[in-house]
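User: I need a structural model of Alkylglycerone-phosphate synthase from Euplotes crassus for a docking pre-check later this week. Nothing fancy, just the predicted structure tokens so I can convert them on my end. Input:
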Amino acid sequence: ANMQKQALRRLKLLEHQILGIKVNNTSSQQKLKDDNGNYQTIDLLYREGRNKLDWFKEKGWGFKDTEFVIDDKTGKVGLTGDRYVFSGKLMPDFRTWAESKIGIDIDKIAVAQKAMDVDPPTFNEEFLDSLDYNFSRISFDDKERMMHSHGHCLQDVFSLRYGKFKRFVDCVIYPGSTKHVQKIVELANENNVVIVPYGGGTNVTQALELPDDETRMIISLDMTRMNKIKWVDRANMTACIESGIIGSDLNRELEKYDVVLGHEPDSLEFSSLGGWISTKASGMKKNEYGNIEDIVQAITIVTPTGTFERYNQCPRVSHGPELNHFILGSEGNLGVITECVLRVREVPEAKVYGSIVFPDFDSGTKFMREVGRSKIWPASIRLVDNLQFQFAVALKPESDSRWQTILDKIKKFYVLKIKGFDQESMCACTLVFEGTKEKTDKQQTFIYKLAKEYHGMKAGPENGIRGYFLTFVIAYLRDFACNHNYIAESFEASVPWDKMDKLCYNVKDRVYASARNKGVQGFVFVSC
Ligand SMILES: Cc1cc2nc3c(=O)[nH]c(=O)nc-3n(C[C@H](O)[C@H](O)[C@H](O)COP(=O)(O)OP(=O)(O)OC[C@H]3O[C@@H](n4cnc5c(N)ncnc54)[C@H](O)[C@@H]3O)c2cc1C
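Assistant: Understood. Predicted structure tokens for Alkylglycerone-phosphate synthase:
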């Protein structure tokens, strides 16, 4: 029996080697229980910097090296690190704007708790003892358990800073293959253990919140070590990809094959393919590439009653219901998605940013309605109201060149004094055009001509770039606000055109009323 066990371990190592990752030989000898009989973390494929705890913030959003801070010397707000266009820069106007317009008191600091008190885990020994190295890593670490017990809505972040979750996962298992997942699901089923799949943990729907009355052992199945592109079929422009891959890694890897996916939710740097499918995600360039449901062609999902996979190369089948549609948006309730076949596209020949300013939100929405009707759609088009426009302007970083500063002043003078736009009512639209040069040229001509009909004015690519940069740092800004006693959250809604005005008005009204009733002090900032 011993020899058989040893042989099995060797085979597992071989399997991991075939999967192409460096194997940590010593840990494969480790037992799940230490000499004192306590369960211990085992990593069969340890690689430095691989663990999310190494680089992701524990009490908030994003990379550890990136945050909005107050610069000691100037007292201005700046962004640390070097990952983003404006990293390492100060935003000279932001502090004054935040203090005067939204009433943040920058000098008031809200100190977060040192560490959350994590409840001890519940173990199902039969399950754990039968696992038999069918994983890449297993962890009982408290911080890792905490990180896998939440998503990223404000309530989650508030608990991370000041409170405690009702229930924590009891251990985190990282499978390395569909076979691992099948074995883990089978054992969990046999031993009455709960599995919660985990991708990037970025959901904003409390999809990872655990019920406090759950007495069974809960496992977080972290899929991020299943992150390989299995094949790319250029003839049919499809690719088979493991579900744990994180968006930005996926983009980088697909580039090597000269193809793109085009699905880019704002959480792209941290969310996973499996998460996108499970939450039916929408990307900022969906006009060109489609939403996730338009991109997915086949899904492999391991369920308690077996593995479902149905893939044929035909782009469409007419008989029978489309089972993929049941899986899309199922938030981990039906099983564990392990891989899928996606439609990929040629790398676009052209990518052009743009922006337009409108005298008021009403003109902007009317313009958007016409773009919708026209079916001539830029890859991405976003309209923001006056408050959000002011917010974006306040976040403008200092310029490296004196000439640029002078030029900016002239532009501002032109827009406000000559064109007569009012800073207190104007709004902006940001654009990305992607495709062949011919197509993007045509789109730009159409869009800017149409904008003129609604008194819009072309405002240049820099504002477009800044607008899209903001989408990547918005959650960092939320954390900055939290540091100064200000809570912030964003909601996304899909709404028919004829209800749009009402929705904007009613949401604002509801938030103001609620804040009033709850005695919230200071200015309540609601923008869309
Ligand atoms: C700053 C920010 C920006 C965002 N921008 C967007 C956006 O532009 N568009 C958008 O649609 N959403 C956006 N979101 C929400 C979120 O990023 C998406 O819902 C994303 O798809 C979640 O993916 P994830 O990998 O983080 O999933 P997780 O949060 O890890 O999981 C979400 C749910 O899916 C399940 N799940 C995860 N992986 C699997 C799997 N392999 N098999 C089965 N079930 C699984 C989990 O159990 C859970 O129920 C944003 C969130 C933040 C914080």
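Before docking, keep this in mind: The pocket of flavin-adenine dinucleotide is lined by residues 151-152, 196-204, 207-208, 223, 243, 265-267, 271-272, 274-276, 278-279, 281-282, 331-332, 336-337, 474-475 (CB under 6 Å).
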